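Morning, I've got a small favour to ask if you have a moment. Here's the protein in full, and shout if anything looks odd to you:
***
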Amino acid sequence: MEQVRLTTCANDFKAHLLQSQLEAEGIPSFISNEIMHSYTNDGCDVYVNDFDYERAVDIMSGLEL
């Protein structure tokens, strides 16, 4: 099992909204750069398992982030 980057959200609030929706659909995820985002404004990366990637993309496409 490999972790792949699903997307980069503009801020941690949007990353957590996406993470909540993914988890509600049974897809585990984690957020990277969450602490560094406070200092750099580079965004927060959301990662999922490689075998969940396609489903996660479908879920994400239905959200307005």
Summary: The first helix runs from residue 12 to 24.
